[in-house]
Design brief:
The protein is globular, with a radius of gyration of 13 Å. Helices cover about 15% and strands about 35% of the residues. The longest helix has 10 residues, at about 5-15. It has a four-stranded antiparallel sheet. It is an alpha+beta fold and about 110 residues long. The chain is built from two helices and six strands; from the N terminus they run H-E-E-E-E-E-E-H. The protein has a single domain (about 5-109), classed as Ubiquitin Conjugating Enzyme (Roll).
Length: about 110
């Protein structure tokens, strides 16, 4: 799935600071102020494409872990910032960016 401008524009309409970024050839989408199912706001970093080195099809990283939700939280350093993610796999990269994010957020309900 390539990031079509209209997909990114959809995110920007809800999250005005959303932007695509790259590090070491990997594409990420930064989403400031993502609202979690709990109502908590965090910055998020979506990796909408599979990276063979970690086995996850897509991943959503958050600026902080969510207490009592998700399993096996790990911390990573991406784009010169600390990010947290949990063990949640098989969210398809074939959907639109907003659908991929929603797929990851299901685990945090």
């Amino acid at each position: 799935m390539g990031t079509a401008l209209d997909e990114l524009d959809e995110l920007i309409a809800v999250y005005p600071g959303a932007q695509e970024m790259r590090e070491a050839g990997v594409r990420y989408v930064f989403i400031p102020g993502l609202v979690l199912p709990s109502g908590q706001k965090v910055d998020a970093l979506l990796r909408p494409d599979q990276v063979t080195s970690d086995g996850y099809i897509t991943r959503l990283f958050l600026s902080q872990p969510v207490d009592g939700k998700g399993q096996n939280w790990q911390q990573f350093r991406i784009l010169d910032r600390s990010w947290h993610t949990w063990s949640w796999n098989n969210v398809s990269p074939s959907g639109r960016l907003a659908q991929i994010i929603a797929g990851h957020l299901r685990a945090l309900r």
